[in-house]
Amino acid sequence: NYSPVVKTPKSTLTDEDAKEKLIDTLVAATAYLSSRKIGAIITIEKIDVLNAFIDKAVKLDALVTVELLKTIFFPNTALHDGAVIIRGNRIACAGAFYTPSDKPDIQSELGSRHRAAIGISEDSDAFTLVVSEETGRVSTTIGGTITQGISEEALRLSLENHILIQ
Predict the structure, then answer these.
(1) Phi, psi of 151 (to 5 degrees)
(2) pLDDT at 9 over 60
(3) What is the DSSP letter of 13?
């Protein structure tokens, strides 16, 4: 069973301030996208290195900012459909595509973004947040499990727990 994921720690955040700033940025960007029903999928790399996906996407290596995330996911632009992968406090790439989960028990109303987010969480330890284009609801995936309709506070808590400092 081939896995495109490598098990080696990669560049992560090195201090609490950088982590807090990243969390604030992700929460603000998600709130903006959610309130406007702009679909998004944002994956945070943890220990499992996601180079197999980054290499096939549009490489950016840019600081994570609300403006950049709003621009990437703006509807009908070249990159809005794929995922953004965050490594440390930088956007490694945009337009990444994951193998969607083929779990039979996924709710039928969950679309391709949600299935892709569940898929990457089955293949790696990555933490992914998804904004629904239809409802604006925010969901997260980790370990093959999706949590739907999470609040801003719950998102902040999840990010606190899943963004690593090394």
Answers:
(1) -80, 170
(2) no
(3) B
